[in-house]
Every structure is written in structure tokens, then in C-alpha cells.
């Protein structure tokens, strides 16, 4: 039996075109494993196929081809067990307006066959900060509250794997922090987390491992640290004492002005040292008021991998 939380083999999804629309190959043969206990980020531009992949895991979209194993259960052979292992917070805010938050959690628990003694609706409400709204009608909840309730609904059956589809898209900073802290806490308690996002900052902050998909294909799969290390680009930002008109350059060192009067020197960390860059600055007669270096961030990695789309 596999130790992976999720194992995806040769997964394909082709949406049949409706009303004269052409067919759409949303996933073109994805192989991917997600280790147990990780916070795993699924990244990609809009239309890459992230939601399609998530919804196949959740049993909401039927795959066209391939094999999906969830917590050791083949999705086709053991649909019930594989469904029980996973909880999904969907991208859309689809809530039944006639239930209170507490009612919605109880109904969801019922759907998953959770016996009353094993239910933890009140704890969930407290965790997502909705205790005081336990008996309010869903239609009176703000967007942020609905999102927190959707997170709560994904947890009723204490799944081994929690999947979040763009959990913080369009939410304010306060709610984002709250969702992040909920996610971290659940992960510390042993839950495997899979989240999709197009906020690279979120992936960099939250995820141990990252897969990047583009046009339905996997273009990268690595630890966050390795992905960031892949691009060896470095930048040194120098704030000169006096305005500089002629920018110094040297082989392997490019320079440009920034709007705030500073100069950015770009170089490859493996080929050029910071000392060589500083030597270039001194040789040009520039006195340094302030200096700092910058690493390539996930955004640079992402852009280089999805360039041309
Ligand atoms: P993402 O979540 O990465 O933005 P999606 O999985 O939602 O991407 O979509 C992947 C591709 O599949 C897109 O081109 C989208 O238009 C198409 N698609 C998604 N859902 C459907 C559907 N129900 N019918 C037809 N095409 C769809
Ligand atoms: Mg999506």
C-alpha cells in the first residue's frame, strides 16, 4: 500500500463541447503524487486545469482516463472510502441559503454518515470564528463568513486530506491570515493539505511542495525550496549617494535604474559573486548609501516555466 496521500496516474479530462463548442482537453495526462502530511500547492494560471483536477479528486467531475488513488483507495474500486478520506472547500460560494451555519454543518455530517457522537460542529464553528453566527441564516452571512463556513463544511468528517480551491482569492488580509492560521493548525494536527492558488506569495509562505500546471500539463513538481533554488538569479540594489547617469556594466552583470533612484544589478549567483558586483560599483566611483540583495522569488520561477502562454 502506498504511503502517498494522493497518487494520480496518467490523468486526462476532456470536456465534451456543448452547443457546438469544441471539446476541451483540460488535463492532458497528469502524473502526480502528494506525500502524506504535506502542505501541497497546485499552481497555475487561470484555465490551467487546477479546479478540474481538484474536482476529480473530490468526485465532482468524472475523469476521462487515468487512475486516482486517495489515501490508498482506488477511486473507481473504492469510491466510498476514497471520498471519506478527502474534504473539499470549493472555489464557488455555493451555500444553501436556508440553513444556519450550524445546520449546514449537521446536514453535511449527515451526508457523510458521521454518527452524532462523533460530530464536532461547535468546535468547527469556533475554529472558523462563526460561533456567534451559529444560528444566523446563511443568506445574512458576509462573503468572508460564507467562505469560512465552506471550510468548516469540508471538515465535518475529519478527512485525512483537506483540499482548498483558491481559498483566499479575493479575500481581505484579515480573512486570509485567519484561513492561513486555520490551515497551518490543521496541518500540525496531521492533516494533509492541498491548495490551489494563483498567489505565488501564498504558495511560498504556506507550501512545502509545489506542482505547477499549465494548459493541462505538469510543468514542475518539486519542494518549494528547490523550485526557488532553480533560478539562480540574484539582484543587488544599490542606493547611491549622488545621482548616477552612466550605469556601469560588466560581463555577467546587467544594471538598470529604479524609479526611486536606486540601481539594480542583476547577475547569476553561480557565476558572479556579490564582491565582484561591489567592485564594479566602486570602480565606477559610486558611493553607496545603502545596499541590499534580492533572491529570485517564486514569481520568477513561475514566469519562466509558463512563459509564452
Ligand atoms: P483553473 O481552475 O486552473 O482556472 P479549470 O480547471 O477551471 O482551470 O479549467 C480548465 C479548462 O477547462 C479551461 O479552459 C476551462 O474553460 C475548461 N473547463 C472547465 N470546466 C469546464 C466545463 N464544465 N465544460 C467545458 N470546459 C470546461
Ligand atoms: Mg479554478
Overall average residue pLDDT: 90
Total strands: 14
Q: Judging from the principal axes of the Cα atoms, what is the shape?
A: elongated
Largest sheet: 6 strands, mixed
CATH topology of the largest domain: Rossmann fold
Oligomer: single chain
How many H/I helical runs?
Answer: 10
What portion of residues is helical? 25-40%
* H/E element order: EEEHEEHEHHHEHEHEEHEEEHEH
Count of domains: 2
Give the name of the CATH superfamily of the largest domain. Answer: P-loop containing nucleotide triphosphate hydrolases
Rg over alpha carbons:
24 Å
Identify the CATH architecture of the largest domain: 3-Layer(aba) Sandwich
Bound molecules: adenosine-5'-diphosphate, magnesium ion
Q: Please identify the top-level CATH class of the largest domain.
A: Alpha Beta
Summing up helix and strand content along with how strands pair, one would put the structural category as alpha/beta
Unreliable segments (pLDDT under 50, ≥5 consecutive)? none
**Approximate strand percentage:** 25-35%
Whole-Å distance between the termini? 39 Å
Physical arrangement of strands within the biggest beta sheet = 6-7-8-3-9-10
